[in-house]
Amino acid sequence: MNHDEIQAVVQEKFLSSERVTAFLCDAKVLHPQWVKKDRLLAIVEYGDEKGVFCLFSSCYPPKSFTDLSIEIVLPIDNTFKCEIDNKPSDPEAILYLNLQSRNNKFKFEIQMTPRVDNFVDDLFRGIEAVNKMPTQPEFVWLKKYNNNKNEDDILTQTMVLPRSGVAHTLSSAPVAIRESLIKRKMSDKEFDYTFTKRFTIFCGTWNVNDKSPVIPLKGWLNVDKEPPDIYAVGFQELDLSKETFLFDQTFREDEWYNTVVAHVDPRAKYVKVERVRLVGMMLIVLIKEKHFSHVRNILCDTVGTGIMGKMGNKGGVSIRFDLHNTSLCFVNSHLAAHVEEYERRNQDFRDICNRTRFIQPNQQPKAIKDHDHIYWLGDLNYRITELDPQTVKKLVDDNNFAPVLEWDQLKQQHKNNHVFAGYMEGTIDFKPTYKYDAGSDNWDSSEKHRAPAWCDRIFWKGEHITQLAYRSHPKLNISDHKPVSAIFSSSIKIIDEEKYRKVYEEVIKQLDKLENELIPQVKVDVTEIDFGTVRYLELQVRTITIKNIGKLPVEFEFIKKLDEANFCKEWLIVEPYKKCICADETCEIQLKVLINKTSACKMNSGTDKLYDILVLHLYGGKDIFITVNGTYERSCFGCSIEVLVNLNMPIREVPVGKLIELENKRDQCVSNQSTYSIPKEIWFLVDHIYLHGLKEPNLFEQPGLHSEVLQIRDWLDTGSIDPIPGSIHSVAEALLLLLESTVDPIIPYNLQSVCLRASANYLQCKQIVMELPEFRKNVFLYLCEFLQEALQHCAENGLDAKTLSTLFGAIFLRDNPNLMQEPQSRINKQVIDKKKAQFVYHFLVNDHSDLIFSR
Known about the structure:
- By secondary structure, the chain is an alpha+beta fold.
- The longest helix has 20 residues, at 826-845.
- It starts with a helix and ends in a 10-residue tail after the last helix.
- The relative contact order is 0.07.
């Protein structure tokens, strides 16, 4: 948020007749009994009178006026004084500002910025104006900000103490407890100060099948009697080019966005809330201009669920924001294709839910589920099973949808709560939206003769939402899908400002009257958590319960231990990590352990182990220690290439101490006596694909099933004599994950910049490969030979050298996670990714038999 946006939030803390004329963001109160945290200083003008307010924000930057609490009020009257200890010329220096009014004196430490001059000038203008007044103002308007004091004392009670202080009254408890409790109490009384207003929301989804917007969209976006308050428009397959798939670049984003803006209902003026795109998925949210001032906390996120769970050809894009006092979230997703892949679609849905996170500074990340209203739209790709295409076509041509919908995969999965649990969908009374011959209303006439299906759907979740319409728009026929839309009437909670202030004042009074009868007390049901055996990429979850057994609310937070950067180790996730719980309430905390490529390397080398101590801190109370432990079952995933080529037995049979010793001496363990020229695990996977999968459609593009990848992991780690389990796609994904998990990439980190500089010159690239350590050179050339063989079957598998070079370039030349790197712009990242791809591309299209690996 910029300075003006923060000022707008501060202004909302006051009445419209009370104008914020100047403010500073980073003032600190210098007082031995105050926590030295940033405050906001504001000069507020009411007619000819001015006052200085010191405000504390429960989060920074403040997202709403409810985040702000007023701590100090100083009227600028004839007793007001402003003194500056020093006014440095250095813009990075500190300025000390002394403010005094009616015997209340405070000293503020302020970072010197150009805005400080404006603030101080406004102070002196206020002093000068009050000294010219024939009679002193009464500052009646300030009384409402401090009902606990008499008229001559406008100073609010101090609300902050050092963390170590335990006070006798709740008003002097740590600010975190007080602010959390105020929020909780205000939330409980929400109906006392809010009213609802109906907003109409248009949700639309269309898989445009790689087409440009060559037709008007009025018949989709502008067909209702009244213009909606909000538009949420989602697209899939915006651009199917390799350039977009590989580097997330497309000119179609602006094309379709501009077309949407041009064809929304012209009877209202709309402004953009946000737009977000991942490869071919784009979500646009527009709102009537008159409502935009009430929109806050706009955030977006993207989740790719393609190969390795990252590629963005499938996945979801999301936008969330607060409208008045209601939180809304819109999700546009494109789930896995193919009739039989409904389990994969279910997994994609869960991945989008679990991985979407809206991150705000100083706040816990929000998930999709953490919103009042959720609208989920997209090409969900669920199909019709158990009915042949001709039967389906005959039934739907007769508008007899019910027998067909009985076999709709999404209806079946939704009914069993496998997906969209808690969500609702309207009655479907329109023809299937897929698949048509592009440019017509004719069903698919290709060789596949796909059965028609309702792939394109809209779901919603939340209270007081009514769907007014759910329809398709068959006249828009440039794609093999038809667009779909739904209109909702949704109750949005709106704050009555005067009522809010009264309730807020009542809550403050109640808190001030409460006595702090006891130090915060909680009961934790278990303080030693054993995860048992933990395996690579296999999520383990345990739950602990915290109960507040005291009489007052308790604010808890997991805090960092001394000299540690985070409160828990990288393989551990704690949700929630902080919260306020009222008396007699309980809170369940999930502890999740997931060993990924980074932590697996440390486990294999012995530099880390499955053991951690969590410090559960009670504000104003004691610390509780919770131990977490488990046993990691070593895997070939996370091993170095040098160690793998020396193992002549499955890794599960290698003693842990021996594996740790090999990893720590891996630079010394490569010799001519090494067992293999390449790791046997890589050979097993490549050989399986070579024998059984070179002609598999969408090889290295379609993800495998996570459950099968775990089976393949166990097969490799145990040295099983059974056939490799899982589909070809799962084996291909396991190969990519294995290569990505090695301690160092195939091409060492120290050579990456050299490779990028040489990427345009094949001879220089060859020279670099020739100088690689022997076993790394062997693996690189072996894989390139295999990929060249795969490209010989491109007619069947659909592969091309550009796709493979981009995918494997990111693995062969992966970035060093241990280096602190400046955030890259999208353009810079695309340039680097293209150079990585170009380096590998040379070895996929040229003969390099002269480099073929030894042994």
